[in-house]
Every structure is written in structure tokens, then in C-alpha cells.
Amino acid sequence: MKAIFAATCAVWMVGLSAVGGEQTKNVFADIPYTDGQAGKRKLIDEKHLFVMQVALKPGQQIPQHTANSNVHLLVIEGEVIVTLNGKDTILTKGDILPVAFKTLLGVRNASKENASFINIRSPNPSEMRP
Questions:
Q1: 5 in the Ramachandran plot: left (φ > 0), alpha (ψ -120 to 50) or beta?
Q2: In this predicted structure, what is the pLDDT of residue 88?
Q3: Can you give the CATH number for the domain in which 10 is found?
Q4: CB proximity list for 9: less than 8 A, separation 6 or greater
Q5: Does the structure show a pLDDT above 90 at 14?
Q6: What does the pLDDT read at residue 2?
Q7: How many domains does the chain have?
Q8: What is the domain range of residue 118?
């Protein structure tokens, strides 16, 4: 039930109706897996909200960096290991994890299966002061 609720929330958050030229986007279709490095696609880029989908094949990672906004990570497929300030947390499908602004953050797929997650940032990093 938890996974269904989380997946429904993910689709609701990125499913924009066709208003003003916007088109509906489905996070379960055309997941942006790529060879070599993590795949990404921008889903929402508004003043107070930035949402992107990240896709990691086995062994791929997002190198450690400092969160440039308040972030929530919502896993929609597979399993990832999130490192926050040096501490690992395993997230699986349906898990959502808040990450505070300026937290040291890294994500990796150490499993043998593909993994994808939604990166929700609020406000948009363009609105944050360094």
C-alpha cells in the first residue's frame, strides 16, 4: 500500500494537464537510462518547484555534492543507497527521504537492477541564496 501511495503521489506531482502548452508526463514511461553516466530528465522547472527524474543502471552514481535546495528523493523503481553527511541509507521503491538544504549528498545504485528516483526541490535552486 505504501508503494502504491508513493507512486500515485509521484505521478500526481509530475502529471501536468495540457494547459498553456504543458503536457502530461509519465514517470514510468521512457525512464531516461543511459550508458556511462546517470540519466536525467527535467519534469518541472517553476519558481518554487524543480522536479527531475534520475535513472541509474547498476553501478552508476550521482557523486557527492551539497544539496542546493530542500530536497525529497522518491524511489519509483529499484533500490539506491543515499549517503547523507557520510551515513548510508538504503531506499527501495516507494521510499521518500527528505534532505535539508546544504547537506552533503550522494546516490548510488549498488544493486544488479535498474533504479530510478524523483528528485523534488523546493524552492527551485535558482531561488536559493548560497
A1: alpha
A2: 97
A3: 2.60.120.10
A4: 74
A5: no
A6: 52
A7: 1
A8: 2-127
